[in-house]
Every structure is written in C-alpha cells, then in structure tokens.
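Everyone, describe these structure tokens:
***
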Amino acid sequence: MKKHILVFILASVFSSVGVAWAAYQFGYDGYDGRDGSSGQQGRDGQSVTVKASGQAESLVLRGEDGSEGYNAENGSHASSCWQGRPEYNLVGARGGDAGNGGHGGSGGDGGDVLAYYDNPAHLKTILVDAAPGRGAYGGQGGYFPGNGCRCEVSTWYIRKCETHYQSVTTCKPVGCTQGSQGCTCTTTQQPYQVCTDHRYYCNDGRDGNFGRNGISGVNGSYGTLRLVPRLQDLEETNSSASISVSNILAGNTTLDRHDWAQRQGAANLFQAGSRVQDSYSQWVGKTMKTISFKWLDSRRQPSYFPQSSFELDLEGQEILVRGSSNLWHTHSQEVLGNHKTYTVINAIRDSEVANMRIIEVEGKLKDLNLVIEDLSDVSDLVSTKVLVKSEWELEAGGDFEGWLPENLITRQGNKIYINFGGISGIKAKKFAKYFGEKFEVDIKIQREFARRAKYVTKDELPVFELKKDLKKPLPLEIKMDDEF
C-alpha cells in the first residue's frame, strides 16, 4: 500500500484577495528536466600554400558544419500530493521546470590560401573550395513542465471546543433562600463546552516553467585569399623591434614588412566552380626603413639606463619610436629618404623625477617659503607645479584653492622655494595669522618633463598636509592623506 508523505515547509502564501498567510507544503517538488548538451563546433578547413604551375589541382578546404544542439528533458510532476485537512494552512509542492535546449554548433571557417604564380592563366587550373561550414540548429527546450500538487479542497473548517466552568448553587428545601432558617445551600463547579469553527486554506503548487530552445550556431566565414605574382617565397620580415638604451649607438636597425592591396573578383581568377570570397589580397611589394640614434646628453650616457629601452614599430611609411615608461627624454628626429635619425637631447630616469624631500618652512609673511630639496638634482630640466587647498580666506570670498602662479616657485641649485606668502588676494586682516603665526596647508606637488607628469608621493599618496608653529622652533610636521 502506497504511503502518503506530508512535507512540512513553512511558506508565505498569498490568497486570492492578496493577503499573506503562513502555510506548510504538502507533497514533494518535481525534478527539473536536464538541459540539452550543446552541439560541436565545426572544424576550420585546412590552410594551404600553393604554387600555380599550370597543372590541374583541386583544393578542398571547406569548413565543417556544426552539429545540432541536443533536446532538453521535460520537468517531472510534484509527487505524494495527498492533501488531508490538518489544523494548518497548506500549499502544494511545485512542478519541475523543463530543461533548456543545447546551443547549436557554429560552422568552421574555410581554409586560407596563399597562392604564388608567374602566369595568371595558371590560376585557372586550380579549383578552390574554401566555403565555410553551416551553423546547426539549437536543441528544443522541454515541452512539458511538471504540474504542482493540486488542492482537493481549497478551504475547510475544523471545530475546536474548550471546556469552561461555571458556579452553580442549589438549596434545600427547594425554593428556600440561602441564609434563611432551615435552608441548606451547596455551590459546585459545573463544566460546559465553548466551540469555535476555525477556517484553513490550501493553495495549488506552482507549475514548472517551459524550457527555452537553444540558440542556433552561426555560419563560418570564407577563408582568406592572398595572391603573390611570383614563384619565389616571401621573405621573413620584422616590422617591430625593442632596443636597449645602452645599445642604441651600435648601428642602424632595419624594419620591413610585406605590403598588400585589396582586390575584388577572386572567383574569376580560379577554375569555374571555385567557392571563395570575392575579395582577396594582392602582394604589391615590400616596405623597408632604417633608423639610427644619436645621444647629446653629456651628463647621462646611455649606459646610465640599463633597464630602459626603445620600442620601434613600422607604421605606414615611418618608424614610430616609444621610450619605455622608466625613461623620460626629449628628442628630435630627421628623415632622409628611407632613413630616420633619432636624437636624444636630454634623458632622466623616472625614479629621479619625484626623488624629493620637504626640508622646512622659512620666513614669515611675504617672505614665507616652503623649501624642497631635489635629491636627484634634475630641476633644471623638470618643472614643478604646486596645487593648494587651504582655509586661507580671500577678499573676494571663499578660500584659496588652485595651482600656484609660476612666479612663486623658484629654484636655487637643487633647492626649490615655494613662496606661499606671495599669494595675492588673501584677506589682509588674516594675513599675519596665516603667514606670520601658524602655517597650515594641504598641497600636491606635480613634476613635469618631456610631456610627462608625475606627483611626488610618499607611500603612493600624493597629498601633503603641512603644519608648523612659526613662533616656536619646532620641526615641520608633514602628514600624508589620500584625499584632496
């Protein structure tokens, strides 16, 4: 005899009037159908190199068709759906979702062809089939989701009774009054029942969802076609190079590449019945360029930059030169015919740009300066900018915030002086407080050279908070922050 099982899962169920009530699930959920597997991708056709000699040839380079995606399984119905009429609300178990169909495999690409010839008529003896494979259909999603458990009755009542007690007094003889002479009275607790009908609800279990069909694969592409009007193999070329800075004076560097022109009408070049894309690439020759380097910086020779390099790329009709990120340099270049001369004028290491330290705040009022030491002594090449955020009130309103004017930043040897006292527009009545008693400001220091810029940082945070009591010989307090 089949045994019915009640699964208790407390759930919040909405009735038809939109009121939520707690319920226990009865029955077991149906199983979701398995998704279909995806089809295989078609293999690409073989790529070949051929030399047209006038002999008949047949090149079968078709891409394979993809295979179809597999169909999904249906969802199963909820089971053990015996409802009963318990003293609580019920909701049926859900049906299983139908699975999704597998995606169809895409078609493979046709093979590529590199064809050499010295007589265009010889191409007519070659049959080329470089058609792409076809994409396959996706599998069918499951047609039938599972049904949820259905309620046999949507509502029912269960009567619940409670025993209550009330006091009953009886007197003898009958009719006498309690307390009167010869009257004996007795009080007892008599039980009685109070019954209430409780209403309970049942909601059907949710049916499963239908499965989605798999996506069909896409068709492949025709193979590319390149034609070279000669029988000699194309030479290897090198259109890019990396040269260590320490070796750039060794001699010329040559970069070259093969050049191709786009043409139409490929099907008319080969044997009738060939299946190739209409456009093809025709070899039209080779571009070759050379480059050499000169070095004018007398303070730092190329050997000073063992970790730096120049990247060379032949683009269009010129060689483009890029220095590595750790090399900052200025340059000039000259092109004569197919040769470029690249001259390095000044060069510094990236690490030297921000190799600085704040020494002190000196002076007062108009002569108040922040003094910074350039530890690498490159400030004759590298410019310094200072971005300020302060609480110094302006006559025009607001606080002073922005880049300091260039005339307030001067250099003496390897020391840089930032003249905060020379800022115009600060409220006159507050001037002595800001630059005569206490100095407090947030700054960013930016260094620029060769169209590159870098913030001076400490622990990779580019904001300095400077504080100093100008009346007391205390050291300058410098803090770092990550917000400006």
Remarks:
- The first strand starts at residue 10 and ends at 14.
- The chain has four domains: 1-151+204-229, 161-195, 234-270+284-350, 354-481.
